[in-house]
Amino acid sequence: MTARNPTTFIVGAGPVATALAGALRLGGVPVLGLWARRAAQARAAGSTAGVAAFSSAPPDILLESEVILLAVRDQAIGEVAHMLGGTGLIGKRHVMLHCAGASSAKELLGAISEQVKGIGTMHPLSAIADAKTSMRSLRGTVFGIEGDDIGRATAERLVGALGGVVLPLDGSQMAAYHAAAAVASNYVVAAIDAAAQILATAGVAPDKAAQALVPLAEGALRNITAHGTTAGLTGPVRRGDAETIRRHLEALRGKPDLVETYRVLARRAVEIAARIDGPDAPDRAGLDAIRALLDPSLTQS
User: Fold this and answer.
1) Are 34 and 49 in contact (CB under 8 A)?
2) What is the C-alpha to C-alpha distance for residues 289 and 35, in angstroms, rounded to an integer?
3) Cα angle 68-69-73, degrees, rounded to a multiple of 5
4) Strands 118-124 and 8-11: what pairing?
5) Cα 266 from Cα 252, distance rounded (Å)
6) Is 8-172 a domain of CATH 3.50.50.60?
7) Burial degree of 220 (CB within 10 A; 0-12, 13-18, 19+)
8) What is the 3-state secondary structure (H, E, C) of the chain?
9) What is this structure's pTM?
10) pLDDT in tens, 245-282
11) CB 148 within 8 A of CB 112
């Protein structure tokens, strides 16, 4: 593979496949097309991404590609790779990459590794829900990268074309990597949902509660970006204000699910606050009191 961007073919037609097909095309990568079993879905994805769309059987144009990027459901990657391997269209000219975050290339593509030039993982650390928007906003996105030498190098080249940031990964620790991604994305949504339920108990209309909290969450993320998690922490736990935490828990009395969520997150905040020392350190006795308040064996909700 030369220094030019490699000819690439996308397998899949969901939001991730569509966004990557469009973004790679915009980044100067020759995307030969995308393929999905369902014709309507393939056509829609191809139209959005601005690339050729194929359906039914995998197309002969695969023979002209150098990279095959599998952007299908995680559970389907191994099956799809095996199916492609049996078409006669895949060989030693190809590098096969997948976009799953929880499993390594060896786990998902190992069975086909002897048939191709290289295998790797190229996982976007991005919540891609709308392909049309995401294909134009992937610049700066972090991509988790791992695989064999050729697979990693190929994934890094594609990420470079996207204007993304390469995050090298240990393939044996993919589940931990993906758990971190889930906490930072999916479970932030869960935390905002819980906060919105709490706000609704204060008389705010349920359909307004989440939107009212989003700017606050965005401010917290800006603090993390500027200062990191330790210096970016604010609020009553940061101060060691046990009385305010006691009042929060009292307000949630009778709502065990929300109390549990509050306690789990607040205990983590206590651990962050405990890292801070010097003249700006939180009140240590206050932190100890908060720990006691958050211990379900010592208090009742």
Assistant:
1) yes
2) 59
3) 130
4) unpaired
5) 14
6) no
7) middle
8) CCCCCCCEEEECCCHHHHHHHHHHHHCCCCEEEEECCCHHHHHHHHHHHCCCEECCCCCHHHHHCCEEEECCCHHHHHHHHHHHHCCCCCCCCCEEEECCCCCCHHHHHHHHCCCCCEEEEEEECCCCCCHHHHCCCCCCCEEEEEECHHHHHHHHHHHHHHCCEEEECCHHHHHHHHHHHHHHCHHHHHHHHHHHHHHHHCCCCHHHHHHHHHHHHHHHHHHHHHHHHHHHCCCHHHHCCHHHHHHHHHHCCCCHHHHHHHHHHHHHHHHHHCCCCCCCCCCHHHHHHHHHHHCCCCCCC
9) 0.89
10) 999 999 999 999 999 999 999 999 999 999 999 999 99
11) no
Gap between the Cα atoms of 274 and 286, Å rounded: 11
Across 288-298, b (16+ Cβ under 10 Å) vs e yields ebbbebbeeee
Alpha-carbon gap, residue 146 to 98, rounded angstroms:
10
Token pair 């697979």 is found at 151
> In the prediction, which pLDDT does 301 show?
43
